[in-house]
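Q: Study each token:
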Amino acid sequence: MIRVLIADDYPVVRIGLKEILTRQRDIAVLGEAGTGAEVRKLIAQQPWDVVVLDVSLPDRGSLEMLKDIRRERPKLPILIFGGHAEDDFVVRAIRAGATGYITKRAAPEELVRAVRRLAQGLRYMCPSAAEELIGSLSNGSNKAPHERLSDREYQVLCLLGSGKSVGQIALELGRSVKTISTYRARILEKMEMQSSAQLVHYALRRSLAEPA
């Protein structure tokens, strides 16, 4: 039996994922989490075969969450469940420790297939994510401005793109307003931009905004 942990901040999404997976005789959803703290708690409580991880948890970014899980359970397969397959995020997720990636546009049978492959010790990338990953690697040194950012700076850029203020981002990430303002200043400098409005426009144009 494949033991699955589902991590998504929306209960209705968790219910839907659980319904799809538990229709299969070889898959059991034994835990659900809505925050990063809940994920860490459940990871420590029992063994798992696959974690299905949403890209946006309220108290912990998915890239940071990936690294947290990797520190605790280095060999645990992690399937990222994302809103879209933006090339830079796919690359960052793989580097942070993701074993698989599918988008929320995936058909139910693709989710099941991905979970089974990860449980077998294999990797799984949905076609759109694989295409973006190959495209990113093929571009070589021709990097987009946001690819110069650290994972934390990238997360702040995505949150700015979703329309959140510095204060809201500070609250969501558990950091001070001053710290987030410093990140924003670094982002502006690295991306050679002059204002937050430019950052928001860039994030929206590149589909980098975090889901609401």
